[in-house]
Amino acid sequence: MTEIQVAHLRMQGTDFVFVPLSSAMARLQVVDQTSVLNELRTLSKSAGLSGEVVPVWQGSAGAAYVADPRHHAILSKSLRLDLIKSHLNKQLSATGASSTLVQLVHETRSTPTAAEMAIVDGLPRSARVRTLKNCIALSLKSARLNSSPEIAVEIFRNIAAIQSKRLRKMNQTETV
After folding, report:
1. Are residues 58 and 122 in the same domain?
2. What percent of the chain has pLDDT over 70?
3. Could you tell me the pLDDT band of residue 175, with boundaries at 50, 70 and 90?
4. DSSP collapsed to 3 states, 29-82
5. Fewer C-beta within 10 Å: the chain N or C terminus?
6. Domain of 102, in residue numbers
7. Does residue 150 lie in a domain region?
8. What is the mean pLDDT of the chain?
9. Contact 162, 86 (CB under 8 A)
């Protein structure tokens, strides 16, 4: 069974169920994107979540999504993938999900961070990173965070979530 984390949010008086997916969604044919959307709508309804289901992924110029055109005015101005990922608050159980949906969900589960503890404890970074393909990296400086408390709160919340997930995974695999 595949578990899909979603953000069930209200924006400008409208309920949405945002589903973060892999950027591979952009490479699907429209008919396949529609199929994934319909599958997510069924799963969302089964979970008792009301609202417009919106698959979201990282596009070349920010968040990309599939949604009813009447919501584009709201979404095009305020939708950000980092915001959605930081507000994941519900889970869909996808027993018998299509292989396409399973792949799109599993590709989003990596935690591409390194040396994040240096921001927390102020010590030098102890990690080195080598990528297998071209990527975009963000370097954060603690002085920059000190001048932006709202951003710092979100980043520290994400660091805590990442560390919590890592610790839980270690505890689950630890043998006595």
Report:
1. no
2. 84
3. very low
4. CHHHHHHHHHHHHHHHHHCCCCCEEEEEEEECCEEEECCCHHHHHHHHHHCCHH
5. C
6. 2-106
7. yes
8. 82
9. no
Same-domain status, 53 and 131: no
Q: How many domains does the chain have?
A: 2
Tokens of 138: 């963000």
The dihedral over CA atoms of 80, 86, 87, 90, expressed in degrees to the nearest 10, equals 120
Report pTM: 0.62
Q: Mind listing the pLDDT tens digit for each residue in 6-63?
A: 999 999 899 999 999 988 899 999 999 999 999 999 999 999 999 999 999 988 888 8
Spell out the residues 6+ positions from residue 147 whose beta carbon is closer than 8 angstroms to its own: none
C-alpha distances in Å from residue 49, one per residue of 57, 90, 100, 135 = 20, 9, 22, 35
In a domain, 112, yes or no: no
Residues 8 and 88 reside in one and the same domain: yes
Q: Is 155 part of any domain?
A: yes
